[in-house]
């Protein structure tokens, strides 16, 4: 992972100078990226997979929110950008990500699943210059469900757990099947501590979706053209989607194989 911690040097460098130092896949843990619109569930599925595979889940949105809550020098600048649903500059996001990766490397972390990065072609190019990404999973859901999921999202301000109070039912149309997603309700002890993200209001979610289509959708094509993109249409909530995602990733019997090898 040493090469990727040098991301910060690349963001301001016009002429990229270093190549990938990633060892062959069998010698290291997975280096995956999760793409998808706001509200699609990148965090939920990426963090579950990270637990399964024993790699860190690195969500740049979490890094931004952590920086915001720390009241550091960037806080006020960041809160204005995030609360309008806009993207933080490549330079700031790469600084935050580099620091996170360097801290992880110092603790002996290896491999990762990136969630929310890259979000622009420039970020994708910088990432490609410093490390090998094995696979990019593109999670997809109808826009109607995305908005409802963002508006229903709740976070426990004590344990950090992610929940959803929305009961979603989307009618099938144009050959696409309908879909039902049950709420993901918090346990009783979190109920009084639920908060809503400041950028999960209807106006800001619509702006985030617009920006995703403009700036982040080209990143899908960037990875598609390199043969790294796995498209995954979520068939419903976690109970329906998780086993199918494991199948699509050839991980459906991973846990059994791991315990047999132990
Ligand atoms: P998320 O939790 O991924 O929805 O991210 C929350 C907010 O953090 C976004 O709306 C952006 O303002 C900012 N952000 C997160 N990741 C990035 C990124 N890769 N590039 C630019 N801004 C980002």
Can you give keywords for this protein?
262 residues; alpha/beta; Rossmann fold; three-stranded antiparallel sheet; 10 helices; globular; binds adenosine monophosphate
Describe the structure.
The structure is a single chain. The chain has 262 residues and is an alpha/beta fold. It has a domain at 2-12 and 30-141 and 207-251: Rossmann fold (3-Layer(aba) Sandwich), CATH 3.40.50.300. The protein is built from ten helices and ten strands. The chain has helices at residues 7-11, 42-53, 60-69, 75-83, 90-106, 121-130, 143-152, 202-224, 238-248, 254-261, and strands at residues 31-35, 57-59, 112-115, 135-140, 153-156, 162-164, 168-170, 179-181, 194-195, 229-233. It has a five-stranded parallel β-sheet with strand order 2-3-1-4-10, with helices on both faces. Helix 3 (60-69) crosses helix 4 (75-83) and helix 3 (60-69) packs across helix 5 (90-106). The longest helix is centred in the last third of the chain and has 23 residues, at 202-224. It starts with 6 loop residues before the first helix and ends with a helix. 32% of the residues are buried. Bound molecules: adenosine monophosphate.
How do the helices and strands line up, and which of them pair or pack?
Elements: H1 7-11, E1 31-35, H2 42-53, E2 57-59, H3 60-69, H4 75-83, H5 90-106, E3 112-115, H6 121-130, E4 135-140, H7 143-152, E5 153-156, E6 162-164, E7 168-170, E8 179-181, E9 194-195, H8 202-224, E10 229-233, H9 238-248, H10 254-261
Parallel strand pairs: 1-3, 1-4, 2-3, 4-10
Antiparallel strand pairs: 5-6, 5-9, 7-8
Helix pairs in contact: 3-4, 3-5
Family: Belongs to the adenylate kinase family.
Enzyme class: transferase
Catalytic activity: AMP + ATP = 2 ADP
């Amino acid at each position: 992972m040493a090469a990727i911690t040098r991301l910060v040097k690349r963001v301001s460098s016009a002429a990229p100078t270093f190549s990938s130092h990633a060892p062959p896949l069998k010698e290291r843990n997975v280096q995956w990226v999760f793409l998808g619109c706001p509200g699609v569930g990148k965090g939920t599925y990426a963090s579950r997979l990270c637990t399964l595979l024993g790699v860190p889940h690195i969500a740049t949105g979490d890094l931004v929110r952590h920086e915001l809550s720390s009241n550091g020098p960037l806080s006020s600048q960041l809160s204005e950008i995030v609360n309008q649903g806009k993207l933080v500059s490549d330079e700031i996001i790469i600084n935050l990500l580099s620091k996170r990766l360097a801290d992880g490397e110092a603790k002996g972390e290896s491999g990762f699943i990136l969630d929310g990065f890259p979000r622009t072609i420039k970020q994708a190019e910088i990432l490609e210059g410093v490390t090998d990404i094995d696979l990019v999973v593109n999670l997809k859901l109808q826009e109607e469900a995305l908005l409802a999921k963002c508006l229903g999202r709740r976070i426990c301000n004590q344990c950090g757990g992610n929940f959803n109070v929305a009961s979603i039912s989307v009618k099938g149309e144009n050959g696409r099947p309908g879909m039902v997603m049950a709420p993901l309700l918090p346990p009783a002890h979190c109920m009084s501590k639920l908060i809503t993200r400041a950028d999960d209001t209807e106006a800001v979610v619509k702006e985030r979706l617009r920006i995703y289509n403009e700036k982040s959708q080209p990143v899908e094509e960037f990875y598609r053209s390199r043969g790294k993109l796995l498209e995954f249409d979520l068939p419903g909530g976690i109970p329906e989607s998780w086993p199918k995602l494991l199948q699509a990733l050839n991980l459906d019997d991973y846990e059994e194989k791991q315990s047999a090898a132990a």
